[in-house]
Specification:
With 681 residues, the protein is of the alpha+beta class. It has a domain at 593-680: Cytochrome c-like domain (Cytochrome Bc1 Complex, Chain D, domain 2, Orthogonal Bundle), CATH 1.10.760.10. Helices cover 15% and strands 30% of the residues. It has 12 helices and 39 strands. A 5-stranded mixed β-sheet has the order 1-33-34-35-36, with no helix packed on it. The chain has a 4-stranded antiparallel β-sheet with strand order 2-39-38-37, with no helix packed on it. A 4-stranded antiparallel β-sheet has the order 3-4-5-6, with no helix packed on it. The longest helix is centred in the C-terminal third of the chain and has 23 residues, at 658-680. The radius of gyration is 24 Å and the shape is globular. The termini are far apart. The relative contact order is 0.12. It binds calcium ion. The site of calcium ion (CA) has 6 residues, from loops. Calcium ion is lined by residues 187-188, 264-265, 310, 312.
């Protein structure tokens, strides 16, 4: 009898709330933040308006949480039932009281630090998904883990890719129709992209969609791949992987029952190596509309046919309803890396407009009659090295944009970072490491040269032009949040957090951060008080590959924090200040100009993407000019024997010889001496 009563009680509870806790579909008020982009449409617009353009100057720190991380923080926090869930570097998950910042639990999946070698763009994670009392996270080493939302205890765990391959997960999973959807990254290394759907309750694989064809001697996995195969011509792309990894963006339209997924660049980058006979190479750099029940492809739009520039279409996909020429259209916005702002009919995939939101030099325009770009002369750099806009970091990267239906504007964190593209005449496929097919010395040493810009752009998708633009001090600024308070919130690469009037961009509030910010803010309300929360932690691809860290990042040692603001908040940030002393000179070993040149080349092929061009660190990974004399002496053991593997520094003995390491040391010593001599003048 007692047992029956218990069953009845459970049944009654289930009827009152059939999906149990954390039921996202019901939150129209904006009090919670239940989905990655707040809702499945991923607009990152909140209807909350307690904080508005008139009082935002009274914002202060409500609380802050030490994430105990010194690498990049890119997560969008989620908030449900008064608890905030987020991730830090190395796929660590944490839950805190959303009103006080008090830690509820913390879960470290124990990602092996040696996995960093496969992470092109830092050991970052963009957040969790919530569903029916569970928290879902994808880890850098490819596990999808379901945690109990109350305790952080693992419920199930699956490995989503072959761990022997150079895949990673940095993106946030999404839950659609009781399935957890997850993609992966790795196209710089040579992998084949795919998206998987797992049963949210059990972790069983429901379906998998490969984004590019595999070995053509084997049967294709789907009808979509059969259609894609003729767009790959010649070459043996499947041996390198082909690319097309879906490492970040997704959105879902429940009425159309379409799941939208953005795919990435080719593996290798250059079509000449991947598909020497030309062709579009479907479904690289594309927006895919899939059936969430089966993974069947319904339509696709390819933003960059034949991609040879790392022009991923993994950038934020945002769903909106827009009146165009007197007719309400269900549209989809994307500002992918290639510099064009696309408006598509999201029911059919029809291209409605495509206009440059930043300077573009690879194509003259997009032809609306066939939806295809018109390539500029030597765009494919087949006639020699050329600087192309946008560069591989894109006119806009993963940092989410935001759509405000009240202003009719899309807010985009844009940038200009040119790079010189040149074919690698000596390309050979080397599994597990960078396989781009471009000249790494020319490329890496040109990043950060030329006109570098970063800005916040307010784009009118109807007029197809910017309405206002605020130039920031540097590129690689934070993702965006816009609210019904006529506000736009953004953290910046110059270590501030800012609020601007959404209609005209006027700066209304600014607060110092512990370090550069790349993550997007969120907002929520608890006990009648509205909060704005954002993670501060400088990092990501450009942060590693640039030589210009924010001063605050260097001073704080990139101290990661989750910071929450509210009106009248009186909290303060406890920021460590690290004195950075000039390095001691190194007793010079005799080196030759030839050896230093060899060191320059080897450094820019093997080291610069993390340690920065010219050995000038980007602020999240050690600046080697400042390393101890002991480190210089131990360079053989570190680079060849993996002495620092536990710290995330991979071993390179498969690729580099002792002579290479000595040449790198000679080059590093020269750069260290240049730093000392500069300081002396
Ligand atoms: Ca890429």
């Amino acid at each position: 009898m007692k047992r029956n009563l218990g069953v009845l009680l459970l049944l009654a509870l289930a009827c009152a709330n059939p999906d149990g806790r954390l039921r996202p579909e019901t939150d129209a008020t904006g009090v919670s933040w239940l989905r990655h982009g707040r809702t499945d449409a991923e607009q990152r617009f909140s209807p909350l308006h307690q904080i508005d353009e008139h009082n935002v100057a009274q914002l202060g720190i409500a609380w802050s949480y030490d994430t105990r991380s010194i690498r990049g923080l890119e997560a969008t926090p989620l908030v449900a039932d008064g608890v905030l869930y987020a991730t830090a570097s190395w796929s660590v998950v944490f839950a805190v009281d959303a009103a006080t910042g008090e830690e509820r639990w913390r879960y470290d999946p124990g990602v092996p630090r040696s996995k960093a070698v496969h992470a092109c763009c830092d050991v970052v994670n963009r957040g969790v998904a919530l569903h029916r009392g569970r928290v879902y996270v994808g880890t850098l080493d490819g596990r999808l883990i379901a945690l109990d939302a109350d305790t952080g205890a693992p419920v199930w765990e699956v490995q989503t890719f072959d761990p022997a391959q150079a895949y990673t997960i940095t993106g946030a999973p999404r839950v659609v129709k009781n399935k957890v959807i997850i993609g992966n990254g790795g196209a710089e290394y040579g992998v084949r992209g795919f998206v998987s759907a797992y049963d949210a309750a059990t972790g069983d694989l429901a379906w998998r969609f490969y984004t590019v064809p595999g070995d053509p001697s084997l049967p294709p996995e789907s009808a979509a791949l059969e259609r894609a195969l003729p767009t790959w011509k010649g070459g043996r792309w499947w041996e390198v992987g082909g690319g097309g990894t879906a490492w970040d963006s997704m959105a879902y339209d429940a009425k159309l029952d379409l799941l939208y997924i953005g795919t990435g660049n080719g593996s290798p980058w250059t079509r000449k190596l991947r598909s020497p006979g030309g062709g579009d190479n479907l479904y690289l750099s594309s927006i895919l509309a899939l059936r969430p029940d089966s993974g069947e492809l319904v339509w696709h739009y390819q933003t960059t046919p034949g991609d040879s520039w790392d022009y991923t279409a993994t950038q934020h996909i945002l769903l909106a309803d827009l009146e165009i020429a007197g007719r309400m259209r269900q549209v989809l916005f994307q500002a992918p890396k290639n510099g064009f702002f696309y408006v598509l009919d999201r029911a059919t995939g029809e291209l409605l407009s495509a206009d440059p939101y930043v300077p573009v030099s690879w194509a003259t325009h997009v032809d609306l009659s066939n939806g295809r770009p018109v390539y500029a002369e030597n765009a494919f750099y087949e006639d020699g090295p050329t600087s192309v806009l946008p560069g591989p970091t894109g006119g806009h990267s993963w940092h989410p944009m935001s759509w405000n239906p009240q202003t009719g504007l899309v807010y985009i964190p844009v940038q200009q970072i040119p790079m010189v593209y040149a074919h690698d005449p000596h390309f050979v496929h080397r599994p597990g490491i960078w396989n781009m097919g471009i000249d790494g010395v020319v490329g890496a040493s040109s990043i950060g040269k030329g006109a570098i810009e970063g800005a916040l752009l307010a784009w009118d998708p109807l007029a197809k032009r910017p309405v206002w633009r605020i130039d920031h001090r540097r590129p690689w600024n934070g993702g965006l949040l816009t609210t019904a308070g006529n506000l736009v919130f953004q953290g910046t690469g110059h270590a501030t957090f800012e609020a601007r009037r959404a209609t005209d961009g006027e700066l209304l509030f600014q607060a110092p951060m512990t370090t550069g910010v790349v993550a997007p803010p969120i907002t929520y309300q608890i006990d009648g008080e509205q909060y704005i929360a954002v993670l501060a932690g400088w990092g990501g691809g450009f942060a590693l590959a640039s030589a210009d860290p924010p001063a605050e990042t260097v001073a704080s040692g990139n101290a990661g924090r989750l910071i929450a603001f509210k009106l009248g908040g009186t909290g303060a940030l406890d920021v460590p200040t690290l004195a950075r002393e000039l390095p001691s000179p190194i007793a010079s070993r005799p080196t030759t100009a030839k050896q230093r040149k060899r060191g320059f080349d080897a450094f820019h092929v093997w080291c610069a993407t993390c340690h920065g061009p010219a050995a000038i660190g980007g602020g999240t990974i050690p600046d080697l000019r400042y390393s101890s004399v002991a480190t210089y002496q131990a360079l053989d053991a570190i680079v060849l024997d993996g002495a620092y593997e536990a710290k995330g520094m991979p071993r390179f003995d498969e690729w580099l010889s002792q002579d290479d390491v000595h040449a790198i040391r000679a080059y590093l010593t020269q750069q260290r001496e240049a730093l000392l001599s500069e300081a002396a003048h």
